[in-house]
Amino acid sequence: MQHEYQQLNMEERVKIQYGLWQKKSLRTIAKELGRSPATLSRELRRNKGFDALKRRHYHPLKAQELAKGRIIGRGRRLRLKSPFVRQYAHAKLREGWSPEQIAGRLSLDYPIYRVSHEAIYQYIYSQYHREGYGTCIGIDLRAWLRRRHKVRHRKKVPYAVEKGHICNRISIDQRPAEVESRKIAGHWEGDSMVSRKSQIRLNTLVERTSGLALISKLSDGKSESTKRVVVRRLKRIPRSLRRSITWDNGFENARHEEMAKALGTICYFAHPYHSWERGTNENTNGLIRWYLPKGTDFAKIPNRVVKFIEHQLNTRPRKRLNWKTPSEVFNSIVLR
Q1: Cα(248)–Cα(258) distance, rounded to whole angstroms?
Q2: 197: exposed, middle or buried (C-beta count within 10 Å: 0-12, 13-18, 19+)?
Q3: How far apart are the C-alpha atoms of 248 and 276, rounded to whole Å?
Q4: pLDDT at residue 150, rounded to an integer
Q5: d(Cα 230, Cα 216) in Å, to the nearest integer?
Q6: Residue 245: enclosing H or E segment and its boundaries?
Q7: Mean pLDDT of 122-127
Q8: Is 53 helix (H, G, I), strand (E, B) or coil?
Q9: How far apart are CA 144 and CA 129, in angstroms?
Q10: pLDDT, tens only, 3-28
Q11: Higher local confidence (pLDDT), 212 or 50
Q12: Measuring CA to CA, which residue among 271, 104, 263, 76 is closest to residue 174?
């Protein structure tokens, strides 16, 4: 009669570890447990982990976890087989990367690892059903997927701001066609993000060719504050990369002529309620909202957090940049 195989339990795994510490042979440990030497040999081969020095060793808790994950996933395909790829995906999901960005950048940085973004999506959802597949129990990776609304509503500002007519605006209709093509760097788009709970705003500037984002806190919605911050940020950029800025029609941009003179550039204005004419900037604002959802009080967000978000966006690979990052592309332009 064939003996029905039973999985090793936690108590047995502890005894295996203790026996190994005592320098006992596998045959001796197997005899003490009433198991075959082949069972213990298979256990060590399949369920060894790594210590802090990256050395292979046997630990009962890790072995139990690996075995449990294998049982849960039995009969199901593991979407990301490489532990390195899984760890890479976990880290980048936490940084707000999409599966498509992860797959694209992975193949760029580590050509030997190639996975599709669909495989990453399937891993995320199958990981939830199989309880993390052993190594991620208790973590639902779906929470790290970006969720964005495609419809944007007109901004409602509960605080008093400057109102009036913006003099001497230059329409986007007069903007050179080269700006739309993105082939020539140095053309920027600008906007202000509003907080419903305070007067503090975020000024965002995005370079169209590279997608490089500059994010700054504004003390209020006044045009003087916007002018001061924009000049300070763009003054650090080479003049050859300050060709133009395209704004919306918010009165915070009323000092556009002073900005243009200080920066040696020209300011254009999109048509009212045509946010798609500044699509690069609108998309970036949507990415910022992943970190700072609507309803966030910007007054409670320290500058170091704003700088962190700026860094995250500028070091995130983009499909249209062939999976390079905005910082990489912009720096390569500066060094030409």
Answers
A1: 17
A2: middle
A3: 10
A4: 35
A5: 9
A6: strand 244-247
A7: 77
A8: coil
A9: 16
A10: 445 788 888 888 898 888 888 999 99
A11: 212
A12: 271
pLDDT at position 226: 96
d(CA 291, CA 95) in angstroms, rounded, equals: 10
Residue 246 backbone phi and psi in degrees, to 5: -110, 125
**At residue 179, does pLDDT exceed 50?**
yes
Residue carrying structure tokens 């400057």: 162
Q: Using CA atoms, how far apart are residues 331 and 334, in angstroms rounded to an integer?
A: 5
Tell me which CATH homologous superfamily contains domain 172-334. Answer: Ribonuclease H-like superfamily/Ribonuclease H (3.30.420.10)
For the stretch 265-282, pLDDT in tens is 999 998 887 878 888 888
Could you give the angle at the alpha carbon of 73 between the alpha carbons of 85 and 41, nearest 5°?
Answer: 90
Rounded-to-integer distance, Cα 193 and Cα 70, Å = 48
Other CB atoms within 10 A of residue 64 CB: 18
**Which residue bears the tokens 């973004």?**
117
Asked whether the predicted pLDDT for residue 142 surpasses 90, the reply is no
**pLDDT, tens only, 48-72:** 766 555 567 788 888 887 777 666 5
DSSP 263-313: HT-EEEEPPTT-GGGGHHHHHHHHHHHHHS-TT--GGGS-HHHHHHHHHHH
Tokens of 103: 């797959």
Task: Break the chain into its structural domains and give their ranges.
Answer: 10-72, 83-141, 172-334
Q: Which residues of 202-237 are buried (b: 16+ CB within 10 A; e: fewer)?
A: bbbbbbbbbbbbbbbbbebbbbebbbbbbbebbeeb
Q: What values do phi and psi take at 155, rounded to 5? A: -70, 135
Q: Please give the average per-residue pLDDT across 210-224, as a whole number.
A: 95
% the chain with pLDDT above 70: 84
Is the CB of residue 37 less than 8 Å from the CB of residue 27?
Answer: yes
